[in-house]
User: Fold these one by one.
Assistant:
Number 1:
Amino acid sequence: QVQVAETGGGLVHIGGSLRLSCSASGIIFGDYHVNWYRQPPGKDRDWIARISDDGIVSTYANSVKGRFTLSRNNAQNTADLQMNSLKPEDTAVYYCNIVERAGRFHYWGLGTQVTVSS
């Protein structure tokens, strides 16, 4: 059984930092690309970042580029999202989505809440 879980959310002040982590079990983690999405209150879920299965290529939405950084450790089955210079508009539930490199399987975590306040 495949399980995906996000941790590290919480309440942070404007300009602060948080580090989210995505962990997965029941799969060979290195066979999966990792995407991060977020869903602000009352809005749609949007893609914000992706790291390739081997960790070499990372891409970011314009809204987070230069502030968020992806990393992963395939030996530990984890992928992290370092979030710096946080803004109120970063407030959302953040989701990890893993996608098998051939696109045959994908799995979601349940999300973790990030709240940025003054």
Number 2:
Amino acid sequence: VQLQASGGGLVQPGGSLRLSCAASGNIFSINAMGWYRQAPGKQRELVAAITSGGRTNYVDSVKGRLTISRDNAKNTVYLQMNSLKPEDTAVYYCNADIRTGWGTRGYWGQGTQVTVSS
């Protein structure tokens, strides 16, 4: 199983980006999916998560600006990022709880850099 993240880049404050993360491999089902971020010198933190049924939760600092969604047919999770702030600068990682023929465990994507700067 692999998670391939894309969509990061450099954007000015107030701008937008859309991150995508597609899971591939011998997947039976995917439970929760989420996005984490890690800024330099800080611990990795959960930004947003979504259940297989579409229930979402967000860290307080991104509520109203970032939106997580998923396409179950494509095994893909998205993070729409609007009104970006310099403090959103970090490496963003996707995570998914995936059931395969070997059981269920969490998988990580490779990370994608988001830089918010003028």
